[in-house]
Amino acid sequence: MPKRFVVAASEFTDLPRFPVGFELAESLTAAARHLHGTGTPDDTMNAAVELAVRLLPGAEHAGIAEIQRSGRLRTLAWTDETVRFAAEPRHGGGHTPHPDWERLWTTPVVRTADSEADGGGNALSGLGLRSALSLRLRADRRRLTVLTAYARKPQAFDEDATRIGRLFTAHVSLALDSATVREQLTEAMRTRDLIGQATGILMERLDIDAAGAFESLVKASQRENVKLRDLARRIVDANTGSGGRGVNER
What we know:
Layout: H1 21-36, H2 41-55, E1 61-68, E2 73-78, H3 81-87, E3 109-112, H4 123-126, E4 131-139, E5 143-151, H5 159-206, H6 210-224, H7 228-239
Antiparallel strand pairs: 1-2, 1-5, 3-4, 4-5
Helix pairs in contact: 1-2, 1-5, 2-5, 5-6, 5-7
């Protein structure tokens, strides 16, 4: 399960609320710096929902959710509990509660002018959220990542809000991709170091060379159906006295 975040919409007080004109360009540049200064994808999404409330005209709340083709939804970040309840299915139903999110598979932006139109009765109107501006951040064949801004009044998001939202989410997407790559590279380096330690332990324990130790580790990983990284961690932990069970590789 992904980590979830609740953020306060007051951290970026250096940015004007709902900037326009030249001020908007400066604010988007500052927002981009904030986003690219985050350490992990989780931090990037944490910052993005907070910045969205400051930058998008009419926005009162914001959240980021992941939607799978199966209809399963996971909330990744939100500014407050109202957004959490707007995004999450009720009573474990597993459905997509936002009435227009399905359209984001084929279009990058969806605006909900009034959730109470046609009688309401959906998750948004039930929480008093009349307007929504949903912007696609990521998409592949299996899942969507969506940033949505919400407002309590109808027709809160106009063409200007949509244009600013598109510009802003372009920055968010780039920052999110960058943070993901950094995280993957960091994990790869940690995995390499861990496998190197495990290989060294096996070389000493079994009196074999590095190639033989690595081959032994790979065979044990395949035999036990365990990821190489996890098996290496188990060997290193056992060797440092943490009580884990080693592997008889031969």
